[in-house]
């Protein structure tokens, strides 16, 4: 007799596990690639000396890509609310709680991080251009507020990195150790 937590039951469930809607899968991977690119560009550009022309180009790219990913995250939040999400495979309650908490905190980070960056940019004389289009500035040139918001932006970046590591580790644990085929729900 097999139970819901036995390896055979998990494999059988994983083999026929329902998948996310194609739009949610596409948004997931676009956002993931965007965030990885943003983190790479962000950490690289802050290490460049001031006044270097490529730094200004990278900062503007970072802002535009960040706002693009932010809009994709908002679209994904709406799509997740509207579209059916497949149930998680059988797992202990603490794992289910950890998965939901990690995903929830990832969404919070994906909203707070770009908002803090945009607000930080609003408190400087340069503002923000979205792929060349100037956006409204919600502030004035204020070094203290700029540093506050950029500090939040950077701190949330490190939290998001930790959450991504947990998210990926959890998915790989389910795929390789539990063998419940969890990844098949989100693969293109």
CATH architectural designation: Up-down Bundle
Number of strands: 2
* Model regions low in confidence, pLDDT < 50 over at least 5 residues: 9-15
Q: Give the count of structural domains.
A: 1
Description:
The chain is mostly helical and about 190 residues long. It has a two-stranded antiparallel sheet with strand order 1-2. The chain has a single domain (about 5-185), classed as Fumarate Reductase Cytochrome B subunit (Up-down Bundle), CATH 1.20.950. The chain starts with 6 loop residues before the first helix and ends in a 10-residue tail after the last helix. The chain has five helices and two strands. Its cofactor is heme b. Belongs to the cytochrome b561 family.
Search tags:
188 residues, mainly alpha, Fumarate Reductase Cytochrome B subunit, two-stranded antiparallel ribbon, Cytochrome b, cell membrane, Di-haem_cyt_TM
Could you provide a short overview of the structure?
The chain is an all-alpha fold. It has 5 helices and 2 strands, in the order H-H-H-H-E-E-H. A hairpin with a 2-residue loop joins strand 1 (129-130) and strand 2.
How is the secondary structure organized here?
Elements: H1 7-15, H2 22-46, H3 53-82, H4 93-122, E1 129-130, E2 133-134, H5 143-178
Helix pairs in contact: 2-3, 3-4, 4-5
């Amino acid at each position: 007799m097999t139970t819901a937590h036995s390896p055979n039951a998990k494999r059988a469930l994983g083999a026929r596990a329902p998948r996310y809607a194609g739009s949610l899968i596409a948004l997931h991977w676009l956002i993931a690639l965007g965030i990885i690119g943003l983190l790479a560009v962000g950490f690289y550009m802050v290490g460049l000396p001031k006044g270097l022309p490529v730094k200004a180009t990278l900062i503007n790219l970072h802002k535009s890509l960040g706002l693009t990913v932010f809009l994709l995250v908002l679209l994904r939040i709406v799509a997740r609310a509207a579209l059916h999400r497949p149930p998680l495979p059988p797992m202990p309650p603490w794992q289910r709680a950890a998965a939901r908490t990690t995903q929830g905190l990832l969404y919070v980070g994906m909203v707070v991080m770009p908002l803090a960056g945009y607000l930080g940019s609003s408190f400087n004389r340069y503002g923000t251009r979205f792929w060349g289009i100037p956006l409204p500035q919600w502030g004035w040139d204020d070094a203290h507020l700029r540093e506050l918001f950029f500090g939040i932006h950077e701190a949330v970046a490190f939290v998001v990195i930790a959450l991504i590591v947990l998210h990926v580790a959890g998915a790989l644990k389910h795929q390789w150790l539990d063998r419940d085929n969890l990844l098949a729900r989100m693969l293109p």
